């Protein structure tokens, strides 16, 4: 009888999370049917989750003070607070480096180095470098999209192919960057170091990138020269600086704080003002407000699910779905389970960071049960979230590039070759390196 009651409680504990996903997805689909631009981004996620939190308190069936304590324990968990602080510093670095002209410098430096016969693979690499440096696919697309559109018009390259190339490169860096909110979410929910996740990720992302470059080289039309603007190489250095420090294994707070100071110092050589520096740091903080709040709310919601057995129940169900594969290899089954979990989450939410935060606790449970390393589970979470996000016609990336290139978002998403290649590469690594997870 007790087991039956516990099972019911476990199922009910998932109701708030399902409510959040249904509300977020339902609002997006409705607004999309009404022709609203960026339909899936009109209802802020921190607002959409509030009814789910109310339901969680109701489902918990405990005195209100006990429920509040449970929620605060989850929202204030050390991993959640660490994640939120990293978000703030990453936002500040991105804002300061961008305000000093670093993004334009990286883009023009890349364009100046591209041979005309390698235009598409070259633009893929530029987008990859910029997104790895900035930690944001949307910021990369916003910076490079208009330039790529102009190049497309001048060279006659198919706009859909050009747009797909840009989103491919943007998702490469979004997945790999140590200051990307997806990396921050994946490493904190799985409990691993950023440098370890970065190195694990490289084993999958680099082969996928090489295959993509080969494909884009084949698809590049007759050579065309592209004009570039003047740039300062000093403004490129802050991005290289934080990448080197991160890979060297320094504490992430030291890396990001040092990066902010270094970016400002490089900016001062180009007439960047101290007053602007303070404002840009705060702007970077403000840019992270939504994901900061959502992370805390999801943390509190997840604690309700955990204490009522929801995580164990969901992990058990996913293992049931992969039971046939588990007969041959348990680690392969659990890794594919993690992939399916975050793919489904991202399909519903259309936000790769949020999908990682939602799927993270269950993925950690699957990884622990299957004796999968934290760096592998973090890598898989980030990879498959980015695969789905870059392939969604209603994702922000496809919507923005569709508007920039004046084409359908569907044309953008179906031309995101890197995302498809990355998915196949990741599955191949899961199957072929199954004993090294």
TrEMBL record:
Annotated keywords: Antiport, Cell membrane, Membrane, Transmembrane, Transmembrane helix, Transport
Domain Na+/H+ antiporter NhaC-like C-terminal as annotated: residue spans: 11-217
GO cellular component: plasma membrane
Any Pfam family hit: Na_H_antiporter
Source species, domain of life: Bacteria
Localization per record: Cell membrane
Topology within the bilayer: Multi-pass membrane protein
Regions annotated as coiled coil: none
Keyword Cell membrane attached: yes
Transmembrane domains' residue ranges: 12-32, 38-59, 80-103, 123-151, 202-219, 239-270, 336-359, 415-432
Single GO MF descriptor: antiporter activity
UniProt main location, coarse: membrane
Family, similarity comment: Belongs to the NhaC Na(+)/H(+) (TC 2.A.35) antiporter family.
Record-given protein name: Na+/H+ antiporter
